[in-house]
Design goal:
Layout (H helix, E strand, L loop, with lengths): L5 H12 L3 H19 L6 H17 L10 H32 L1 H10 L3 H14 L2 H11 L5 H8 L3 H20 L4
Length: 185
């Protein structure tokens, strides 16, 4: 790690807690390269190491106001980087096991492919169900899902009660669910 004193880290950390972007930049410049090299002990791909270290710093910035470093900042950063590396290795292990299972059981993968609903299929089902419903239900659903309006706003537009809007949108959702469940998969 860079040759800075722990007292300088304490000052930078305190400034960071107060929201100093300059302090954050100094900490990043001080530790980034060393942490990327440290991550390389666990992960061979430099770009993955860089992403992990950037995520460590991103997390520090996200919680800078309540950051609680009980050890030295150096230890905190190394531990955070190590934990991300171990999580990545665990993820890779799970993916590898899944791939080995798929290769040993290709028929299981093929049968699951038939069960997978593509976005375009879902979109078609939704459009088909919307076309079968009455105009008020279709409009309520569109205003809720596409325009992002609240039920209260939709009730005002449709000149009905909020409960009526709830029922209309509920009918649409039930129709879509029913159509999906009826698919011959």
């Amino acid at each position: 790690m860079a040759n800075y004193s722990q007292s300088e880290d304490i000052v930078l950390l305190e400034a960071l807690r107060l929201g100093s972007r300059r302090a954050f930049s100094l900490l990043f410049e001080k530790y980034y390269l060393d942490l990327v090299m440290f991550a390389g002990i666990y992960i061979p791909e430099q770009d993955v190491c860089e992403d992990m270290v950037q995520n460590v710093f991103l997390e520090i910035w996200r919680k800078h106001e309540c950051l609680n470093v009980s050890t030295s900042l150096k230890n905190y950063l190394i531990t955070g980087t190590r934990n991300r590396c171990l999580n990545e290795l665990e993820h890779r292990k799970v993916v590898s096991q899944h791939i080995r299972f798929e290769m040993r059981n290709p028929e299981a993968f093929v049968s699951r492919c038939d069960d997978y609903l593509l976005y375009s299929e879902l979109k078609h089902i939704i459009e088909d169900q919307l076309n079968r419903l009455n105009t008020a239900e279709r409009e309520a659903f569109d205003l809720s899902r596409n325009a992002g309006l609240t039920y209260k706003e939709i009730a005002s537009i449709q000149r009905c009660s909020i409960r009526t809007v709830e029922v209309r949108i509920g009918n649409v959702i039930r129709a879509i669910r029913s159509a999906i469940e009826k698919l011959d998969r």
